[in-house]
Specification:
The chain is α+β, with helices and mostly antiparallel strands and 151 residues long. The protein contains 5 helices and 4 strands; from the N terminus they run αβααβαββα. A 4-stranded mixed β-sheet has the order 2-1-3-4.
């Protein structure tokens, strides 16, 4: 290998250190690459469902509600967290379902930031935890605590 090869590798490493890695230490990006916009004003958790729900769809919503009521009662009272079950098939819920991009029964977390930005994310992992109440509740609790802790 010649000297130019090692110089090229060294330059690439330095550029990575200067431009890529620091953003993970500024608080603006999570380790997964998700950008954080600023201070959180409110978390909106919505269980979207259809008119006819299967037992799994009901469980996703019921366990989410139980988790939030159990661990986030203060945040519910203050309005920092909101939770609702919404039938995405009803016309009065059309705009909210469209805003979130709902295509079926799902659990969504909407994050409103103080700078006016909004980020939505569907949490599909809860579906794998509906048969274990404690696992489901601990999982969702940790997700919401992390979001609130980033605040």
């Amino acid at each position: 290998m010649d000297k130019k090869y090692y110089i090229g590798i060294g330059i690439i490493v330095i550029l990575l250190l200067v431009f890529a890695i620091p953003k993970y230490f500024t608080g603006n990006v999570t380790a997964s690459g998700t950008e954080i916009f600023g201070d959180i004003e409110k978390l909106e958790i919505i269980h979207f469902h259809g008119t006819n729900q299967c037992s799994s769809c009901i469980a996703v919503g019921d366990l989410a509600e139980k988790t939030i009521n159990t661990y986030f009662s203060d945040e519910l009272k203050s309005g920092k967290i909101t939770f609702q079950h919404l039938n995405a098939e009803l016309s009065e819920n059309y705009n909210l379902a469209k805003k979130y991009g709902v295509t079926g029964s799902s659990l969504w977390i909407g994050t409103y930031y103080k700078d006016g930005t909004f980020k939505k994310e569907e949490n599909i992992n809860v579906w794998y935890k509906i048969n274990n109440k404690a696992d489901y509740m601990n999982y969702l609790k940790s997700i919401l605590e992390k979001k609130l802790g980033d605040n």
